[in-house]
Design brief:
The chain is α/β, with parallel strands linked by helices. The chain has 2 domains: 114 residues, Aldehyde Dehydrogenase, Chain A, domain 1; 184 residues, Aldehyde Dehydrogenase, Chain A, domain 2 (3-Layer(aba) Sandwich). 33% of the residues lie in helices and 16% in strands. It is built from 9 helices and 13 strands. Helix 2 links the parallel strand 1 and strand 2. Helix 5 packs across helix 6. It is globular.
């Protein structure tokens, strides 16, 4: 990141014969400039100049792209709030959009699950990239009988997380992307405490140069009485809820407006099938005994509900990047007419 989001759109678009304009995040301009330089060099070697172009800047060039009818398809990855604006502006000119918006991803852990496997997946999902993936794990629903041992293991795992320069060996968690992101982290922790949450690990901003925070575990009361968990905070905060059974877990899991990635850890085939069924997870991605973070590149990536419904990668995502046309060729001298109509 942030190059991955561009690449799986741009590569498909190029295969489908499209040119691609990339407006990257204004917070990471140097990454996009470096990648564009590589594209320019390769394009020059293959007589393909102009296939990939860079449009740096903030909201203003993004607005131009939404409104320009020369761009039949706009793929947007970002917040739900901005995604609503993009969808509205592109639709107003009858353009098409692919929306990859917020994810408030949950993991369910049931009695009998492999706790060692679950702990590894949950820790990486919540702490990796400092919780700044759309698929980061943000909510954990644990069957009550195993809540204590799982939480103890998670606290132990969090204690081992080395924070610092992610280019250094052994560092698992780097900084947040900006000072406002750090402030949102602090505000979410404060809101969680005010709503009855108990910080079991972390919760502090580190006193050092850069936007570094501690990975944070918060044991929460009932999901419906804990509104901060219904929001997506782009930070390494994991809210933990105890549940009686898979029914209670699914009700809470599906209650939020976002619907990107989800996971269940269980040795029960019946519970796994339930989770994957129409009565189970309502997310675009549902995993069994694998975490929420990341994506299977061979499968369609995207979410439901306020996540936007878009799909990237996978077996049929390429169709969104192409113009469809139905063609009929008449090889004879007769002219068949619709609905069997005949002229006398």
């Amino acid at each position: 990141f942030p190059v991955a989001v561009w690449s799986w759109n741009a590569a498909l678009a190029a295969v489908c014969g499209d040119v691609c304009l990339w407006k990257p995040s204004p917070l990471t301009p140097l990454c996009s400039v470096a990648v564009q330089a590589l594209c320019d060099r390769v394009a020059a070697d293959h007589d393909a100049e102009g296939v990939f172009s860079l449009v740096p800047g903030g909201a203003e060039p993004g607005g131009w792209m939404c409104d320009d009818p020369r761009l039949p398809l706009v793929s947007f990855t970002g917040s739900i709030a901005v995604g609503r604006q993009v969808a509205s502006r592109v639709a107003s000119r009858l353009g098409r959009s692919i929306l990859e918006l917020g994810g408030n991803n949950g993991v369910i852990v049931l009695d009998g699950a492999d706790l060692e496997l679950a702990v590894r997946a949950i820790t990486f999902g919540s702490v990796g990239t400092a919780g700044q993936r759309c698929t980061s794990t943000r909510r954990l629903f644990v069957q009550r009988v195993i809540a204590r041992p799982l939480l103890d293991r998670l606290v132990a795992a969090y204690r081992t997380v080395k924070i610092g320069d992610p280019l250094e060996d052994g560092v698992l968690m780097g900084p947040l992307v900006s000072r406002p992101a750090l402030e949102r982290f602090s505000a979410a922790v404060a809101a969680a405490r005010a709503q009855g949450g108990e910080v079991r690990f972390g919760g502090r901003v580190l006193d050092r140069p850069g936007n570094f925070v501690e990975p944070t575990l918060i044991v929460a009361p009932r999901h419906d009485a804990f509104p901060i968990a219904w929001e997506e905070t782009f930070a390494p905060i994991l809210y933990v809820f105890e549940v009686a059974d898979v029914d209670e877990a699914l009700r809470a899991h599906n209650a939020v407006p976002q619907g990107l990635s989800s996971a269940i850890f269980t040795d029960s085939l019946r519970a796994a099938e339930r989770f994957l069924s129409a009565a189970g997870s309502d997310c675009g991605i549902a995993n069994v005994n694998a975490g929420t973070s990341g994506a299977e590149i061979g499968g369609a990536f995207g979410g439901e509900k306020d996540t936007g419904g878009g799909r990237e990668s996978g077996s049929d995502a390429w169709k969104a990047y192409m113009r469809r046309q139905t063609s009929t060729v008449n090889w004879g001298r007769d002219l068949p007419l619709a609905q069997g109509i005949q002229f006398g």
